[in-house]
Amino acid sequence: MTAHTLGRGWRLFAILVLGFASGLPLALTGQAMQAWLTVDGVDIATIGFFGLVGVPYTFKFLWAPLMDRFEPPLLGRRRGWLVVTQLALAALLWWMGSLSPSAAPELFAIAALLVAFLSASQDVVVDAYRTDLLPEEERGLGASVHVFAYRLAMITSGGIALIWAGQWQSWPRVYHSMAAIMLGCAVLSLLTLPRVASHLRALDSDPARELRGFVAMLAGLAVGYLAAHHLLKLAGLDPDDPNRWIQLLFVLMEIAAALPLAYLAARRAGFETLNRSLSSYFAQRGAAAFLALIILYKLGDAFAGSLTTPFLIKGMGFSQEEVGIANKVIGLWLTILGAFIGGLIMTRLALYRSLLLFGVLQLVSNFGFYLLAELGRGAWGAVDLPAFDWGIVALDRPTQLDGLLLTVIAGENISGGMGTVAFIALLMALCNQRFTATHYALLSAFAAVGRIYVSPLSGVLSASIGWPSFFLFSIVVAVPGVAMVWLQRDALAALGRPAVPAGADD
Asked: Which distant-in-sequence residues (6+ apart) come within 8 Å of 185 by Cβ?
């Protein structure tokens, strides 16, 4: 075995570890957390608002330049930030598992928000580390390994977590187990990850001025938030109004006011790494239209998927184990299959045609949830699943999985995986190599807008109009994303056909 082969194996092992660590926290502040809230008796509208704990995924480009610019001592710039974020994630997941969402909802929400912040920060470093570590000829294979590990982690923290919760009758024990797994990832990162070369920073800027600019940006966020909050109160509105639409208005207006002021403050105070990277992105033709496309393309998927777990458990009456097996274990493997199929198709189709085709398939797949809500469980019979014991997860007795549920999950996950491949290819094509970490963080943050901000609206909407109408609405909101692809067809064609891995991270 040659030194080159050994080196490649070491690098791919590093990508495997980091892909798993990156995917593990997502469901723990998303679908798994929703299941815990549901069985703990939290109402559906409040569960929808808990989706806002994922807000850091949409803002991570604001602090990504700091992680690009500064280096923790001793461990190196990339590896240092990885170990720090993973150790902190392990500690926070343990703390979150010690709380009760029904007895202390505010404290539980703060813990979940901190987990999401650190998870988003880890994602920034993982993306940058993967780019720095892999030579050009290994990036396709490395991306595929990352996708596999990322989805495997989502199966662990999503599907297996639900099965454990049903068997152990203890969500705290599940979260403590996930904290131990994250601690293991931190140890592996510390002891086994290869160092990367100390590449030139995005800018050779004054560190003190960068920090002042970052603090000024945070001050701008706070001023914008408080200004919008108090203006709405002066208008006679109450942030604690039992009307969920009023609560949602406060959230959206506070964010709409905070972001522009944060940008202006960063610009005036000299947060140069952020300022130059944003200027670099917006200098390209059609930059704003591409951001609109990024937000809209997955919007229908985000609506349909935002409350899937509460819908299946509370709305349809499926057990936690059945949802865990069908939606989280089988479903995520089908997403990997969809990503693989999408990657093969994209070797034949250009980026524009792939985005259009997969966008239509995503739209059509949402109709399956409408059928499930209308026809109910048992409409298409059931599939027998024998007992099994895989060591980390077991089913102690044979059970039946609903036939319509499996069909809907298959359609949604395969089409979603295909759409994600084309979507990530678009993000890759839009990145300027000089500012890869910050650009990717910016674009992926915009990509998370739909997934995060539709959650409170989804909770209010589903409670107001019922599940069948809600899923029909998810089909309607998917149309603008497909239309935007068609309107941007010339600009998408001009991006060329970048290399696409057989999968994508969410």
From this structure: 17, 20, 21, 24, 86
CA 446, CA 241: separation in Å to the nearest integer?
Answer: 29
Are 174 and 248 contained in the same domain? no
Asked whether residue 323 falls in the same domain as residue 415, the answer is yes
Q: DSSP secondary structure string, 198-264?
A: -PPPS----HHHHHHHHHHHHHHHHHHHHHHHHHHHHTT--TT-S-HHHHHHHHHHHHHHHHHHHHH
CATH of the domain at 391: 1.20.1250.20
Helix, strand, or coil (residue 154): helix
Overall number of domains in the chain: 2
User: 506 is written with which tokens?
Assistant: 């969410």
What is the rounded distance in angstroms from the CA atom of residue 431 to the CA atom of residue 453? 24
Cα(261)–Cα(268) distance, integer angstroms? 11
- How far apart (Å, rounded) are the C-alpha atoms in residues 482 and 408? 21
Residue type, 241: D
Q: What is the pLDDT of residues 35-72, one digit of tens each?
A: 888 887 877 777 777 777 777 877 787 788 777 777 77
Residue range 416-426, pLDDT digits in tens: 888 877 787 77
* pTM for the predicted model, two decimal places: 0.70
Instruction: Provide the domain limits for residue 251.
Output: 207-270
Could you tell me if 316 and 399 lie in one domain?
A: yes
Distance of alpha carbon 295 from alpha carbon 398, whole angstroms: 42
Task: Indicate the helix (H) or strand (E) that contains 368.
Answer: helix 367-375
Q: Are 217 and 265 in contact (CB under 8 A)?
A: yes
- Does 305 lie in the same domain as 265? no
Residues 222 and 316 in one domain: no
Do 146 and 55 share a structural domain?
A: yes
Structure tokens at 119: 């998870």
Give the tokens for residue 272: 């140069």
C-alpha dihedral sign at 99, 302, 63, 222: negative
* Three-state secondary-structure class, residue 389: strand
